[in-house]
Amino acid sequence: MTFLSDEILQQKTSQELTMMLYEACEQSLEEAISSIEKKDYMLANKKFQRAVDILERLGVGLNYDAGIIADELDALYNYMSELLIIANIEKNIEKAKEAASILHVISAAWNEAILTQTDKQSKTVRARKNAYEKNALYAE
User: Fold this and answer.
1) Helix axes 14-37, 93-116, angle to 10 degrees
2) d(CA 70, CA 75)
3) How far is the CA of 124 from the CAs of 89, 102, 114, 130, 131, in angstroms?
4) 34, 45, 96, 101: which has the fewest Cβ within 10 Å?
5) CB atoms closer than 10 angstroms to residue 43
6) pLDDT digits (tens, 9 = 90+) for 19-38
7) 1: pLDDT strictly greater than 70
8) Which three-class secondary structure state does DSSP give residue 67?
9) Are the beta carbons of 100 and 9 closer than 8 angstroms?
10) Residue 28 burial by CB count (10 A; 0-12/13-18/19+): exposed, middle or buried?
11) How many CB atoms within 10 Å of residue 117?
12) 85-110 in b/e burial notation, b at 16+ Cβ within 10 A?
């Protein structure tokens, strides 16, 4: 498992962080399915739990000011989470693959949107924001 430093994460946009979450979720689902096929149910359980956790984080991060798309994504995240919980309990590869298929479509669309978006935030504003975030103190 690869971990990124805080400094690298701070340089990512929220869209890039979302893409990273999609990629991590897809990887966890692939590993969960593979683990079921190998009858390694403990590892499958761990990977399913990680995927559900990522979906919950994606749901929490939605911007509901964006309109109906946020509501639709929330519904999809909830549906995929339910599929994965059932897939985990039943060790059902088909349900896991259904969730992975939905996630792949969303992830591909998100990636395409990132690649085609125009940068609306000036470099100066972004530099100030990054400087603030880099030096901000967070209470633990």
Assistant:
1) 160
2) 9
3) 50, 38, 21, 10, 11
4) 101
5) 14
6) 999 999 999 999 999 999 99
7) no
8) coil
9) no
10) buried
11) 10
12) eebbeebebebbebbbeebeebbeeb
Amino acid identity of residue 97, one-letter, is K
Q: Please say whether the beta carbons of 25 and 47 come within 8 A.
A: no
Nearest Cα residue to 99 out of 77, 71, 68: 77
- Render pLDDT for 98-123 as a digit per residue (tens, 0 to 9): 999 999 999 999 999 888 876 555 55
pLDDT of residue 139: 45
- Tokens coding 9: 């994460």
Contacts of 57 (CB under 8 A, 6+ apart): 21
CA distances from 36 to 1, 82, 112 (A): 20, 18, 31
Q: Which amino acid is it at 106?
A: I
Instruction: Return phi, psi of residue 117, to 5°.
Output: -70, 150
Q: State whether residue 126 is helix, strand or coil.
A: helix
Q: Which residues contact 63 (CB under 8 A, 6 or more apart)?
A: 70
C-alpha span between 139 and 63 (Å, rounded):
24
